[in-house]
Amino acid sequence: MHDRIESLAARIGAAARVTILTGAGVSAASGVPTFRGRDGLWRQHRAEDLATPQAFRRDPALVWEWYAWRRETIGGCRPNAAHEIIARWSQRSGCTVVTQNVDDLHLRAGTRNLVRLHGSIWEQTCWNACPEGAVAWRDERQPLPEVPPRCVHCGSLARPAIVWFGESLRHEDLAAAMTATACDVFLTVGTSSVVYPAAGLVHEARARGAFTAEINLEATGASDGVDVAIQGGAEVVLPLIDAAIR
Ligand code: BJW
């Protein structure tokens, strides 16, 4: 592992453009549950019961109770060493951070040039798509005074500003992520690499000539397709890489 860390550090140190894709594993050491690992969120709840527009239409109160519980959990979590290293690297010009996480821990760590592909658990939009409510507003109140919450503009039902299965990502976010695949080094960190289009970004980056690396506790479907796969916690491996960058 030492050699792989040294060689990846040398690549990052020499790169003009670095892109980092993150997933739930980056926030695991902060106490945010992952989706598919042991104790992952999907183990207790079926995705199709909670994270689809159909589920919300069927039972908005149930879906909002799940989000209220997750907001409470995430609200008590702090960025860990992985978020902090990524935030520091993001100060370099040419660095883009693309996250699938909705917890906003990258933002709280001070990450610049951040693309939040799946939205934020701290933002809402109008379920009825009233014109003003189409633009997400922030609501960090804990606990939410009303569950389900209402649109601040028209009073109808609000929804989490999160991309559910079967929904399109925001065009500008996907475009920014695709642009960032034109880079010298592409890191995929703490993601199971099963959810598209995010899972395709590392392959796109490699096809465009990037050196690609994965950091994950375990092998994923992306491991065989990257130049270097390092098994370990992001909160352990990223500080080692950082220390090895000259
Ligand atoms: C550690 C660690 C530590 C632990 N250190 N590592 C092409 C092919 C097939 C299907 C599709 C396709 N294109 C689109 C689809 C459909 C669908 C999809 O991908 N389905 C797959 C499941 C097959 N995609 C969509 O619907 C997307 N929309 C879209 O593409 O629109 C156009 C379209 C629609 C339909 C058909 C075709 C085109 C939208 C995807 C939205 C994803 N939303 C979610 C949930 C939101 C709910 C919420 O959060 O409240 O976002 S799904 C969930 O998974 C969440 C996550 O962001 C996402 C990714 O999960 P992530 O981050 O990888 O977490 P885990 O838990 O899976 O993995 C954690 C990893 O960390 C593990 O590997 C651990 O080992 C590791 N780990 N501790 C390092 N300390």
CATH topology of the largest domain: Rossmann fold
What's the CATH architecture name of the largest domain? 3-Layer(aba) Sandwich
Count of distinct structural domains: 2
Low-confidence stretches: none
Q: H/E order of the elements?
A: HEHHHHHHEHEEEEHEHEEH
Largest sheet: 6 strands, parallel
Helix content: 25-40%
* The CATH homologous superfamily of the largest domain: TPP-binding domain
* Spatial sequence of strands, sheet with the most strands: 3-2-1-7-8-9
Give the integer mean of the pLDDT values: 96
Number of helices: 11
Task: Evaluate the radius of gyration.
Answer: 18 Å
CATH class of the largest domain: Alpha Beta
Hetero compounds: ligand BJW
What class do helices, strands and sheet pairing give?
A: alpha/beta
Care to count the β-strands? 9
The global form is elongated
User: What separation lies between the terminal Cα atoms?
Assistant: 18 Å
Strand content: 15-25%
Label this structure with key terms.
246 residues; Rossmann fold; six-stranded parallel sheet; three-stranded antiparallel sheet; 9 strands; elongated
